[in-house]
Amino acid sequence: MPSIDTALPLLGLWALIGYLIGSVPFGVVVSRAMGLGDVRAIGSGNIGATNVLRTGNKGAAVLTLLLDGGKGVAVVLLARKFAGEDAVQLAALAAFIGHCYPVWLGFKGGKGVATFIGIMLALNFMLGVYCCATWLIIAAIFRLSSLAALLTAGVSPMWALVTLNGHAILLCLIFSILIYIRHWGNVQRLRTGTEPKIGAKTDTPQV
Question: Distance between CA atoms of 108 and 72, rounded to whole angstroms?
Fold first, then answer.
């Protein structure tokens, strides 16, 4: 955990900035802009790239993935340019919370995986690469986005240690807890073998 060097009012400001950037619901925006309807009305009802993919439009899913990840990158880079590492980590956490609980959608947002990956890449490129590689390997083997997300989040503190980013271990632990909370329904379906695989279309909400 970095030392607290930034004045509390400025930390509060960076938390607000992080939340507002993170709360932009790109999955909803992209789906509507591309004529795919309201992504919250299909599949899992989630606004993330995995559910956007269930519309059958891979381009929309990729764009959502990049924009959601970009939110995390933007917040970290902005805070790092204008403030200290304490503000960087607080703003990053706030961006993640903003994505998961956006005020614009009644605090019903995404599960934060793309934003989490973006944050990891911006905090330290190799830390992000390790997290990306973990997700890709698990997803390629099991074709389960939720399992890949859960395992990636779970090992992220270890990757922080391996890449000599000990100051980010606590942040990674917090992200892991939040990602498991956001994926609790997925955990139950993984246990029963009813979790839909990547690219599968579902007719009823999986919430």
Answer: 18
